[in-house]
């Protein structure tokens, strides 16, 4: 590649990088506000999911052990 194409590709890659990470930062910022606003519900739901998964693992382990 010629030096001109090398610079052009570098500029395009930097522009894409800046666009991607700026968009990602804005999305994360919006998501963090939503998560902070609904943190209690998220904690309850995730706790229930982990409790169910733990119960399933315990039952499967007991079946395998005593099966």
Automatic annotation (TrEMBL):
Top-level taxonomic group: Bacteria
Transmembrane feature ranges: 6-28, 40-59
Keywords: Membrane, Transmembrane, Transmembrane helix
Name used for this protein in its record: Threonine efflux protein
UniProt lineage: Bacteria, Bacillati, Actinomycetota, Actinomycetes, Mycobacteriales
